[in-house]
Write a structure and sequence with these properties.
Largest sheet: 6 strands, parallel
Structural class: alpha/beta
CATH architecture of the largest domain: 3-Layer(aba) Sandwich
Number of domains: 2
Radius of gyration: 20 Å
CATH class of the largest domain: Alpha Beta
Oligomer: single chain
Shape: elongated
CATH topology of the largest domain: Alpha/beta knot
CATH superfamily of the largest domain: SPOUT methyltransferase, trefoil knot domain
Distance between the termini: 35 Å
Order of helices and strands: EEHEEEEHEHEHEEHEH
């Protein structure tokens, strides 16, 4: 029997011996894109840390039947829980941030709207964008070997985010900060990192964040774009306190 390392997300509980039909999108990818055959094995994960082998028992243009096999090693909880608090950005910038944050081990992405956000999604357009970003997250999990799918929260105002109580270390990426990650006298188990939009946060918003208990940190001598700052901050946190 041929073994394949193709990984796919299936958002249901999986148990050995379970017989299922793949959803349409997965059926198309298995049959039409990868051209796998009956007897081939793939990996399926449920988004909550569990992954199983699965064997194709029947395949046609419109149907792929699978039998769930043995569980693989359960993905452990992360050493460092990371939340990215990201101002909504346009087009590919947002796609890039969501994808790279997932690859780098983010647990939760909270979208916020600030004064200088250049776009605000509402109604059906927001629903479409949220579905698009969630699919990017799932694809990034499939590629990177993650079994836990990060949570993505719909946009809220900066004020609403700051009003939420939290015992997590809350950091604000700020070019005017005097302190860096390496000078913080902490070893946190959880971090929330706030990244502003293309035009940055206003002085009033920075003060508001500071008053809410956020610590301003400097990401080196260079000013980073919003789509670069988030992933760069996550890498730095993982190197200092996480699993990288």
């Amino acid at each position: 029997m041929q073994y394949h390392k193709h990984r796919f997300y299936l958002g249901v509980g999986l148990t050995p011996g379970m017989m299922i039909d793949a959803p349409d999108s997965l059926t198309h990818h298995i049959g039409r894109v990868l051209r796998l055959e009956q007897g081939a094995q793939i990996r399926l994960f449920d988004g909550h840390g569990h992954e199983h082998l699965a064997e194709i028992t029947q395949i046609s243009r419109k149907r792929v039947s699978l039998i769930i096999g043995d569980p693989l090693i359960e993905e452990p909880l992360p050493i460092l829980s990371l939340d990215l608090i990201q101002a909504v950005t346009r087009g590919e910038r947002m796609d890039y941030t969501v994808q790279k944050a997932t690859e780098l081990g983010i647990e939760r992405i909270v979208l916020i709207e600030t004064e200088r956000c250049q776009i605000r999604y509402r109604g059906p357009r927001l629903e479409k964008k949220m579905a698009h970003w969630r699919q990017i997250i799932i694809s990034a999990c499939e590629q990177s070997g993650r079994c836990r799918v990060p949570e993505l929260l719909a946009p809220i105002s900066l004020s609403d985010y700051l009003s939420q109580s939290s015992e997590t270390l809350r950091l604000l990426c700020c070019p005017e900060a005097s302190e860096s990650l390496s000078t913080l006298v902490v070893k946190p188990s959880a971090v929330e990192f706030l990244i502003g939009p293309e035009g940055g946060l206003t002085d009033e918003e920075i003060e508001q964040a500071s008053d809410a208990g956020m610590t301003r940190v400097l990401m080196g001598p260079r000013i980073l774009r919003t789509e670069t700052a988030g992933p760069a901050a996550l890498v730095a946190c993982q190197l200092l306190w996480g699993d990288m």
